[in-house]
């Protein structure tokens, strides 16, 4: 099992611990705060409810979390050491000194620093080449971006290994060409923050109005296209050149106070903190984190459905992690029901009753049906040739609950596969518990005439083979039932 050491388990260290753990790594934590174990347990609970639901395939088995009283004990056997102690250069350098006395000489030491350059961190370290910046974004377990900043002291092999590890735990390592204070993203964030503080100080807007200006408008655009692609479109058919021509001159108008830092005096701090209390004080930080995570999961799953931006990354990761069969030949034992879905319940699949919403059972059974179609040869190429299946009848029984983050799996049985008909029976399990069954009748169709049509041998032959083999299985309890009063 791969092992990561987390040095400093606060907001960011806790998020790293959760991501590594849920991606199957053992995690060893050192943090002198006596409350660290409780705080990380709370971050982990949020991560367990949200991260697994970004995948539409089974995540790796969760790793083991242990806490250690000293740095030497925490880094023992670790191949990745993530430093997330407070943003003080001397403290970070002191930590590296102890870490390097006791860690493997080829382990990667990543720093979460928001602002220091790697050359500053490497300073007088005994092995500067081991230390890189791996700057994450909060919540580390959901946001994939990691700014990877290196120097010439870092061997290419170590940098490549760092990228591979980050990709392996579902991150998007953005390797900066050159080191610079505050990397790329924090320079933007600071610019925006500075403007926002001026707007409050000058009495133009409150914290809530500024947040609304972002979340009802350009924040939504940025999440999916960033800055330049958005502005290219804003230039109309003439694109970026026209955009610059039209809006470039404003850059020299006195619109922004970007270069001036507002004085963070008591009056401004009271104004910001007071407005923030009025805006969000009704919720605890944990409640706000939960809302943020649910929203992020919904946005990311939306982007995933479009195979776009951060969503495309998630889709590619599913392909890497999937072990489910795509062809009949891949099925280990064709005489048994086939595993067609294995995933966790996404946060945005749950409802006001605190469990998986009824519509999502059909989503999961629909995915199981799609896999059964592919298994009998009705794959993307087949559909592109103008033929497919339509589902004409569905009967779902809801037998038990599933909550956010719970692992579910669907096992599928073919009750009939003859002529134009494919009759499927899916069982959804959570561990050993039967959660639901779904029975579906599919009819083979021509996509041109939109009416039933006989399949050709590409589907007819494997479908008949599957149906014949599954004919040996007992008829499932509940098959053929209609809704009725017991
Ligand atoms: N909070 C944020 O939004 C982000 C912070 N960062 C960076 O992550 C780092 C940590 O920041 P946060 O997690 O926000 O701070 P934090 O204050 O939440 O956590 C710091 C943790 O380090 C522990 N600590 C203090 N001295 C230590 C030592 N000698 N050895 C081990 N642990 C020690 C503290 O007990 C605390 O739990 C900083 O470098 C910061 O710039 C990066 C991205 C975002
Ligand atoms: C405020 N901050 C500079 C510590 C923020 C970051 O570094 C990244 C983030 O999560 O916004």
UniProtKB/TrEMBL annotation:
UniProt xrefs under InterPro entries: 3-OHacyl-CoA_DH_NAD-bd, 3HC_DH_C, 6-PGluconate_DH-like_C_sf, 6PGD_dom2, HotDog_dom_sf, L-carnitine_dehydrogenase, NAD(P)-bd_dom_sf
Protein's pathway: Amine and polyamine metabolism; carnitine metabolism
Residues covered by the 3-hydroxyacyl-CoA dehydrogenase NAD binding domain: 4-177
3-hydroxyacyl-CoA dehydrogenase C-terminal domain span: 184-248
Catalyzed reactions: carnitine + NAD(+) = 3-dehydrocarnitine + NADH + H(+)
HAMAP family, per the entry: L_carnitine_dehydrog
Protein name (Swiss-Prot/TrEMBL): L-carnitine dehydrogenase
Originating species: Flavimaricola marinus
């Amino acid at each position: 099992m791969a092992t990561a050491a987390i040095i400093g388990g606060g907001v960011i260290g806790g998020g790293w611990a959760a991501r590594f753990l849920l991606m199957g790594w053992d995690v060893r934590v050192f943090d002198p705060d006596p409350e660290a174990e409780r705080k990380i347990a709370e971050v982990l609970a949020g991560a367990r409810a949200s991260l697994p639901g970004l995948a539409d395939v089974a995540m790796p088995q969760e790793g083991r979390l242990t806490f250690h009283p000293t740095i030497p004990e925490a880094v023992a056997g670790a191949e990745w050491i993530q430093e997330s102690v407070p943003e003080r250069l001397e403290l970070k350098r002191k930590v590296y000194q102890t870490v390097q006395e006791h860690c493997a000489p080829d382990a990667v030491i990543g720093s979460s620093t928001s602002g220091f350059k790697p050359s500053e961190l490497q300073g007088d370290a005994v092995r500067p080449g081991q230390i890189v910046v791996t700057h994450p974004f909060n919540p580390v377990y959901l946001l994939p971006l990691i700014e990877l900043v290196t120097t010439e002291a870092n061997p290419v092999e170590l940098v490549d290994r760092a990228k591979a590890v980050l990709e392996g735990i579902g991150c998007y390592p953005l390797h900066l060409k050159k080191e610079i204070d505050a990397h790329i993203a924090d320079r933007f964030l600071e610019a925006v923050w500075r403007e926002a503080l001026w707007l409050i100080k000058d009495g133009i807007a409150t914290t809530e109005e500024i947040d609304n200006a972002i979340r009802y408008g350009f924040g939504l655009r940025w999440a999916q296209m960033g800055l330049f692609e958005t502005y290219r479109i804003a230039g109309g058919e003439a694109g970026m050149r026209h955009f610059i021509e039209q809006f470039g001159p404003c850059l020299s108008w006195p619109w922004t106070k970007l270069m001036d830092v507002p004085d963070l005096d008591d009056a401004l701090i009271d104004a910001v903190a007071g407005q923030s209390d009025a805006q969000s004080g009704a919720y605890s930080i944990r409640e706000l984190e939960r809302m943020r995570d649910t929203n992020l999961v919904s946005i990311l799953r939306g982007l995933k459905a479009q195979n776009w931006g951060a969503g495309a990354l998630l889709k590619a990761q599913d392909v890497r992690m999937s072990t489910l069969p795509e062809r009949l030949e891949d099925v280990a034992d064709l005489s048994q029901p086939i595993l067609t879905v294995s995933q966790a319940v996404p946060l945005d699949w749950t409802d006001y009753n605190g469990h998986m919403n009824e519509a999502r059972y059909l989503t999961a059974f629909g995915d199981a049906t799609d896999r059964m179609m592919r298994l009998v040869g009705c794959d993307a190429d087949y559909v592109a040739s103008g033929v497919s299946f339509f589902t004409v009848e569905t009967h779902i029984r809801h037998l038990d609950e599933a909550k956010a983050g719970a692992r579910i799996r669907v096992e599928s049985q073919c009750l009939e596969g003859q002529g134009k008909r494919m009759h499927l029976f899916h069982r959804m399990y959570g561990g050993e518990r039967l959660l639901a069954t779904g029975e579906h009748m599919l009819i083979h169709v021509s996509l041109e005439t939109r009416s039933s049509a006989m399949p050709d041998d590409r589907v007819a032959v494997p479908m008949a083979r599957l149906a014949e083999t599954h004919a040996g299985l007992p008829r499932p309890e509940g098959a053929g039932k209609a809704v009725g009063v017991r």
